[in-house]
Amino acid sequence: xxxxxxxxxxxxxxxxxxxxxxxxxxxxxxxxxxxxxxxxxxxxxxxxxxxxxxxxxxxxxxxxxxxxxxxxxxxxxxxxxxxxxxxxxxxxxxxxxxxxxxxxxxxxxxxxxxxxxxxxxxxxxxxxxxxxxxxxxxxxxxxxxxxxxxxxxxxxxxxxxxxxxxxxxxxxxxxxxxxxxxxxxxxxxxxxxxxxxxxxxxxxxxxxxxxxxxxxxxxxxxxxxxxxxxxxxxxxxxxxxxxxxxxxxxxxxxxxxxxxxxxxxxxxxxxxxxxxxxxxxxxxxxxxxxxxxxxxxxxxxxxxxxxxxxxxxxxxxxxxxxxxxxxxxxxxxxxxxxxxxxxxxxxxxxxxxxxxxxxxxxxxxxxxxxxxxxxxxxxxxxxxxxxxxxxxxxxxxxxxxxxxxxxxxxxxxxxxxxxxxxxxxxxxxxxxxxxxxxxxxxxxxxxxxxxxxxxxxxxxxxxxxxxxxxxxxxxxxxxxxxxxxxxxxxxxxxxxxxxxxxxxxxxxxxxxxxxxxxxxxxxxxxxxxxxxxxxx
Length: 536
Prior knowledge:
Layout: H1 4-31, H2 35-39, H3 45-94, H4 104-116, E1 124-131, H5 134-141, H6 143-161, E2 166-171, E3 174-178, H7 185-199, E4 203-205, E5 208-210, E6 214-221, H8 228-245, E7 250-252, H9 256-276, E8 281-289, E9 294-306, E10 310-312, H10 314-323, H11 327-342, E11 350-354, H12 365-376, E12 383-388, H13 389-394, H14 396-408, E13 412-418, H15 426-430, E14 435-438, H16 440-443, H17 450-466, E15 469-472, H18 478-487, E16 491-492, H19 503-514
Parallel strand pairs: 6-7, 9-11, 11-12, 12-13, 13-14, 14-15, 15-16
Antiparallel strand pairs: 1-3, 1-6, 2-3, 4-5, 8-9, 8-16, 9-10
């Protein structure tokens, strides 16, 4: 509605009342005007007409003046109210209504003003950051809790950045910061460390306590660019590098990161194509009973060879699949194929399959696994799903719910790479863990490193006390196998017994085991690339 529409209605109403008031006022002025004096001296009726004209003219002049003043005052009030409303609308358009921080538009518009006030010799940094594990927290505790967490996160950022910088919520759990003026690059690193420390402090909301982390990507004005869009892009690239480097890490942008991101983008495109064309294959590595040296099962591992990139290690393409949202589809295809192959093995042989942390946040994952088992005909008690300690740490509540459903379906759970993650012994007590896999970083060095040998002995004693079976990874020497067997390790795998092989060659190994023969040592030494094992 236009500002002047209510003013027009008001003008018509005011004019009507003034017209009604003019008639009696003008008549009274005329009756008390000059004609009364003139009539005493014998004036004619012309004087009365003159008095009426003068009276009504005077009335109109006074009324017009009063009306004009009143209208000016009223119009001034309307304009003031309109300006206030416009300012409020502008504030709403430039700020995030949930956190009160600037939004993307305000951030882009305000950056040139901040950099214009930067004196020679000073710089400003642009930081990109988001909340680690925000989506699972939002899903588990609800959107209201997630909103409260975002507000608390924004308050902590504001307390560290101060008034000389700018903080914006760009969307979701993504935030951007323009720092106060910096004398040197190390000042940006100091601020990043303070932000990480402040964010990692426990957050108490609605009688619940959560702890979150973040990664921080940093680009510096003017070293890394002048435009806000370019600085944001480079800070985002640095953020990706920070998140792949570990939890709660900051990274400055470096020029070689651009080439790395380009390589990753191309690899993602080829990965999507490979998934659509079913080019990612399942290979199987034998797992032996160390005492009898007979095969008890196989671990399914993903293998991908691209025509341009060549052999792509799984520890490169699996994280990409997780980031771009195709890990569920990839897992479904590989698990389905692995179960189909395993259903043909003897009943005493099991299939071990690695699960991505993403799957432990999907409450429908147990149903999907049961559906695949039903389609393939593989018994649930012959399937072992391997998880990592890190996947439990990120969201233990959601992970526990998923794992308990799997355990109730008679599917075994193995804790992979034990000793290399957070290594909380509470995991062995609180989660339905039936096997522990000793990481190859200990097994490979147990002959020449007393500390590695002591760690393995401690794990074996702990597992025995809890009634949990153990599997040693990375066995490459007969002496290592003998020592593990002597110490009570039940199962083992490694290049001493062979690298992962395609399903056709596994059938030959299974047939040989059916004749009662023990597993011979592998004669061919694998390459380092074949050694890569991943979660799929």
